[in-house]
Amino acid sequence: YDTGAMKVVMEFLEVMVGRSGGCCPGIDLDGTAAAVAVAGFNYFQHLYTAEGFAHFKKWFASAYNPRPATLPDATASARGTCGGGGGAAAVFTLALDEGAFVDLLRQLTDLSDHDILEMFDTFDRGECGRVGMADVFLLTSLLAAFASAQTTRFLCLHGADFFDLLLAQPDLPGVHSPPVRGGRDAAARAAALWDGLTGEHDDGRPRGAGGDCEETTLSFSRFCCLGFALGLTAQSILGALQEFKVTLQSRIPKTEFMLYYYVILSALDSKLGKPR
User: Fold this and answer.
1) Cα dist from 73 to 30, 60, 78, whole Å
2) Which DSSP string do the residues of the chain spell out, in sequence order?
3) Residue of 205, 107, 224, 112 lying closest to 163 (CA atoms)
4) Residue 196, φ and ψ in degrees, nearest 5
5) Deepest in the core among 33, 84, 115, 257, taking most CB within 10 A?
6) CA distance 38 to 141
């Protein structure tokens, strides 16, 4: 499926989310319960039916065997984040390591390995070298929305969660530059992980309290990560936001993140054409 931004391999997407005839109970994206013909759904909508979500879980479990991991609690296990020490127990969790993630995106898209590795760093909560099933679902939803010209609907459903995902990551050293791997200060990483798990800083302040706007805003390079996952460039993102006077030095809060990406993704959906 050639979009001008990147390609999604529809046959492999169908293996992940399933498309079949017949009728199954589902919830449409406006929240109305209905019995709908699965064949009438696009890939994005089908993923959110009971059948589509069950198919995704079955595919993930069969394609990627549970891997041993040391995780602090059930939430971390579900997300694929990591911890250690403090009584953390070794458990088995469904997650993709870097190699499996790269292999998946090579089959699903035409993104370069460099772009895929940047995406891995984005979805690797806690910098533990794994992406959990919940975040693989988030990525699958994004790419299904892209293939179905429904990226604005993805934004409405998951935009706030994607912002929080990006907020938890360190800023990139430059716009679309190679990610920094390793060598980060261990104390800073531990503090960031504590913030994410408890919602407060290690000195007891609620997350977001205090005067530093960097705690609640994204740098432009980090803001671009959602666009990069769709094959967009920093230049095209800047061009789409000319009227808002966004620059490479801008700091972007959640409300503006949602607004700016609605503008960007509305134009992208129009370019992609009829939902499929």
Assistant:
1) 34, 21, 9
2) -B-SS-BB-HHHHHHHH---SSEEEEE-TTS-EEEEEGGGS-HHHHHTSHHHHHHHHHHHHHHS--EEEEESSHHHHHHT----STT-EEEEE-EEEHHHHHHHHHHHB---HHHHHHHHHHH-GGGSSEEEHHHHHHHHHHHHHHHTT-HHHHHHHHHHHHHHHHHTSPPPSSTTPPPP-S---HHHHHHHHHHHHHSB-TTSPBTT-SS-GGGT-EEHHHHTHHHHTTT--HHHHHHHTGGGT--TT-EE-HHHHHHHHHHHHHHHHHHH-S--
3) 224
4) -65, -35
5) 257
6) 17
110-122: per-residue pLDDT in tens? 999 999 999 999 9
Residue 2, pLDDT score: 40
> 25: closest CA among 13, 43, 38?
38
Torsion angle in degrees (nearest 10) through CA of 54, 56, 58, 62? 180
Q: What is the pLDDT of residues 183-225, one digit of tens each?
A: 334 334 444 444 444 444 434 444 444 445 667 999 999 999 9
> Which residue in this structure is represented by tokens 């993704």?
265
What burial class does residue 47 get, using C-beta atoms within 10 Å of its C-beta: 0-12 exposed, 13-18 middle, 19+ buried? buried
One-letter amino acid at 272 equals: L
Spatial separation of the C-alpha atoms in residues 259 and 243, rounded to whole Å: 12
Q: Are 197 and 72 in contact (CB under 8 A)?
A: yes
pTM for this prediction: 0.70
Token representation of residue 266: 């509305």
Say which DSSP state 66 is in.
-
Max CA pair span of the chain = 56
